[in-house]
Amino acid sequence: MPLPDFSNEGLIDRDQFEMLVATGEDDASGMLVELLDLYTGEAEPKFVELYEAAAEVDRHKCNRIAHALAGASANLGLLRLSHVCRAYEQGARGDMSKEDLHDGAEAIEKLYHISVAEMKVEISKLG
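-> structure tokens emitted (127 positions)
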């Protein structure tokens, strides 16, 4: 059971991004860079764990890691990534094969890198 296609959704949740910008007031870009650094510092080690859990077909661990990534991604406004993580989370609770668990983890990691790059572009536009 491969993950659903969310390519019609934007990478960045504009409303969430604007709310974060407003929260940062005079140093919105600095605050967003700091938040993104915290996010990436927490997220990147989770991919190693996710691949290990997928290889072991540890559905509970896959579910837990995807849940954490989905929530953190949503908080930062990484909309598509959050939705893909939620779909993976649901699939891990179901009957995803070992191959689908691995392929899903790869898809999440790839989208993670694309989303972080896009967020950096959006932050750079703030000046």
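The radius of gyration is 15 Å.
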